[in-house]
Write a structure and sequence with these properties.
There is one protein chain. The chain has 160 residues and is an all-alpha fold. Helix content is 68%, strand content 0%. It has seven helices and no strands. It starts with a helix and ends in a 10-residue tail after the last helix.
């Protein structure tokens, strides 16, 4: 009751401008669930492409590998910038280096390679073995790329 009457005894209201905190806009729970769901489904699509692509290479299934081969090789090529990043100094991480340029190029080519693979799947007959599963995995991966493009996270650029 004494605090209500005398405003000098109350704790001062600290605003974000005084302490330099930036507030992010509040998002809805549905939107947050959508983004997590999108991340999980896209990750499953990429996991399918990586595992099935590896199996198809090992067992030399060229006709089946042809449908997802471009995306598989794009995913495999992501190992090159990872290796290059481990060989450079941590202090040059945000600079324009060969590793960051290669990562930007590969991540920009990823949605393009997915769309080309989807086109190849459309050209193939749906009766062929695994076309529908490949198509679903490619569409899941493409929707994750679309979400990342909307959020300006694709292509992956560290030197901004």
């Amino acid at each position: 009751s004494l605090l209500k009457k005398n405003s000098a005894l109350r704790a001062p209201q600290i605003t974000s401008a005084l302490i330099g905190i930036k507030h992010q806009p509040v998002t809805t729970r549905r939107l947050l669930i959508f983004y997590w769901f999108s991340l999980i489904l896209g990750g499953l699509g990429f996991l399918y492409i990586a595992l099935v692509g590896l199996v198809r290479i090992v067992f030399k299934q060229k006709t089946e590998f042809y449908r997802i081969g471009l995306v598989f090789f794009n995913l495999v090529l992501f190992c090159a910038p990872i290796y290059l990043f481990t060989q450079q100094s941590f202090l040059t991480f945000g600079n324009l280096t060969g590793a960051s340029v290669l990562l930007a190029i590969l991540s920009a080519l990823l949605p393009i390679s997915i769309m080309v693979s989807i086109f190849i799947c459309f050209k193939r007959k749906a009766k062929e073995r695994g076309v529908k599963a490949d198509m679903v995995a490619l569409l899941l991966a493409l929707q994750l790329c679309w979400v990342l493009l909307v959020w300006a996270q694709l292509p992956i650029v560290f030197w901004r």
